[in-house]
Amino acid sequence: EIVLTQSPGTLSLSPGERATLSCRAGQSVSSNYLAWYQQNPGQAPRLLIYGSSSRATGIPDRFSGSGSGTDFTLTISRLEPEDFAVYYCQQYGSSPITFGQGTRLEIK
Amino acid sequence: QVQLVESGGGVVQPGRSLRLSCAASGFTFSRHALNWVRQAPGRGLEWVAVISYDGNNKYYADSVKGRFTISRDNSKNTLYLEMNSLRAADTAIYYCAWSLFSISWFGDWGQGTLVTVSS
Fold this sequence. Notes:
The structure holds 2 protein chains of 2 kinds. Chain A has strands at residues 4-7, 10-13, 19-25, 34-39, 46-50, 54-55, 63-68, 71-76, 86-91, 98-99, 103-107. By secondary structure, chain A is mainly β. In chain A, strand 4 (34-39) and strand 5 (46-50) form a beta hairpin. Chain B is globular and about 40 Å long. In chain B, strands 2, 4, 5, 6, 9, 10 and 11 form a 7-stranded mixed beta sheet that branches. Chain A binds chain B through residues 33, 35, 37, 43-47, 50-51, 56, 88, 90, 92, 94-102, and chain B through 44-47, 50, 59, 61-62, 95, 103-112.
């Protein structure tokens, strides 16, 4: 199975700043089938990005995804208060589907 | 508006069984694959199982293979997860989520149902 490693574990930033979250795969993710989710406390995850760089319906354009092969990035261009949450990457290029361990984005 | 509502969670002793349900509305249920994804308390996400749109194909994580069974009733827009031989390690919030294919990203998710395996 493909192991996904997210970094950093915790990212402390202020509203208005730019956030860069990393997801590294133990082997190449087929067809760049990499998704990102946001999870707020006590809530279900929400799809942000699929196919490495395609925004899901209703996701603001301050969220962008990039990367290929084994290295992927989620960028939040200007942080809003509601963006402080936990973010997970997920690969669906090969079975079984796997998730990264998450990055917690906290207010500095 | 898509709604997925899980039910059936609770406290169960190790070795016992439990059946989860997920009632869906707001989308064409019979055209989507459906998944169970779980999250142990304070931990990350783990995909558990998926069933194809027509119920003919089912896939499981190794951690639950042989103990859990996923099924669906397209006439009732409902997804199920039969969990047998439960272990403490199965303690988690169980979410249902739709996907376009049997291996895919997950669209909408339910709010989850908590399963606690404890003596």
